[in-house]
Amino acid sequence: MNIRGLLIVILGITVLTPGMATAGNDADVFQEAYDLMMQEKYLKAYNMLVQLCETDRNSRDIDKYMFYKAKAAYYADLLPESMRDLEYIRAAYPQSTYLPYVHLFAGNIHYRYRQIGQALDEYLRGYALSSDPELNDVLIKSIGSAAAASPDRNVIDRITTADIPRAKQCDLLTTVAEQLLAHKKYQQVRTVLQACQSNLARDLIRQAEQSLERKLEIGMVLPLSGELQKFGENIHDGAMLRLAQFMAETGEKITPVVFDTQGKNIEAARIVKQMDREGITAAIGPLTSEEASVASAVLSCTDLPLMVPAATQSGLTELSTSCFQLQPNLDWQGIRMADFAVNRLGADTAAIITPTSADNLSMAGAFAERFEELGGHILTIEYFRIRETDFGPFVKDIKSQIIGELLDSIIFLTDEGDTIDAEAVPVWIDCMYIPAEPSQLQMLLPQVQFYNLNTVFLGSDSWDSKAVYDLDGDVLKTCYFSSGRINTEVNDRYMQFKIDFDHRYGRQPGHLEGLGYDAMSLICDAVRAGKYTRSGIIDYLAAVQNYQGVAGAVTFGANRENTEMPIYTIEYGDPKRVEF
User: Fold this and answer.
1) Nearest to residue 517, comparing CAs of 525, 529, 527, 506?
2) What's the pTM value of the predicted model, to 2 decimals?
3) Engineering a disulfide at 189: which of 63, 102, 208, 360 sits with its beta carbon 3.0 to 4.6 angstroms away?
4) How far, in Å, CA of 79 to CA of 72, rounded?
5) CATH architecture entry for 330-482
6) What is the mean pLDDT of residues 339-344?
7) Taking Cα atoms as reference points, which of 219, 207, 304 lies closest to residue 256?
8) What is the pLDDT of residues 389-407, one digit of tens each?
9) What CATH topology corresponds to 3-212?
10) What does the angle CA 280 – CA 284 – CA 289 come to, to the nearest 5 degrees?
11) Chain centre to alpha carbon of residue 50
């Protein structure tokens, strides 16, 4: 409803006030001012009431005089003067019977200034206080109009959490829902009516869900310009391929709505807020962990399903109950390797060497915490700078945890009685966790071999690199690493995906294209199962177990994070999956 339409409703309340009772000259002056208001001579009535309030400040009816002065000012378009008087009444006469009407007119002023949220708060306060059925009807219509006109979904939260007497709550909620339905805000109808169990409420929900079945929009919020454009386009291409296939298979009509974040965090947050406001059914994106974290936080009080395809930062899904993370997060990588070390390798002791970047520290910390929870002992954690090249001091420090300080004065002998240098003394540790990058591993691992430190290497998904695979077998030793981005399963579905992608785009897909394809596949599978609403899609996705996608397996855990984290070893220069 536009402002003019709302004012038509508002103007109908000129006589909507408690009964009038006064005495003497004051009563005559007030009656004359009141008659002028009924003749729509508001400015003249206002001036009379100004004088009345100034000359009779101690009258027992002063709150009534003040209210009518504020009302006359409102209709005379003296909005600042009207708001000043309304605020004064609220502060000076908190027990006045006019307070519900004060809140109504204060809300009207905010509405005319397009301050919809503030207007809604005033209407809700007035409705909570009102015992006048006629005023209740006006306030309910005003609340519904404000809710439908607002571009901000927070107005729905204000309505559902307002302190409204229980006996009046359902009347309000159903009227608001009717307004939302009329404005095609179908997703918000269910949210508004959660606390109402009437037959009318159930009928409105049914109407909204039927309308949603006819309107399916999937948003894609990705960087399609700027430095990250190529990566965003890769995910977009995979998702669009699957969407086209699904519509051809089922006849369903789904509209993709594509937004460009430009790789900017604030833009990503603004876009997902806009998508939620516009009733988008579900969304895929954003790309980076930084974008995804602000997007998830913005959706903390909404029900828009957000499938984050590539970001791996831990805690993303804790910011919103509708956020799903397709790639296993960083903490889960460390936890998974600690479980493997103790339960598969039988390791009792471990050392950690890690770069000091945030992602690597997150994995290292998760590994250490989990390893010790399982009864293991962390000998030491060695931290190195990102551009470090000399790892000798770190390796020797780890060895010293086992054989003591490596001092030149100590003489070490071989079994044959020959002396050897301290750093050449062979030392064995059950395992060593190294969540480092390929360029770092190329320098670090040979130095571990040089200093005769024998162990089983455990790594993160950064070990999935040709630079690591090509290292000499003696340098690699026995090694295992976790990764959710390797697909060694050459199955029919994966091969068909590659063929279809090449046919559509003229190139071979990579991992990001596969993630986009899987993200769209999961949402489409929810639709195929008859889940047309946001809540239905969320419930479907939360139950996904052992889904075999083209980019890897997916099982959503309790926090809607993918917990499928395969473990690999390296054989003959290639990754080989290890069952665990």
Assistant:
1) 525
2) 0.62
3) 208
4) 10
5) 3-Layer(aba) Sandwich (3.40)
6) 97
7) 219
8) 999 999 999 988 887 654 4
9) 1.25.40
10) 130
11) 52
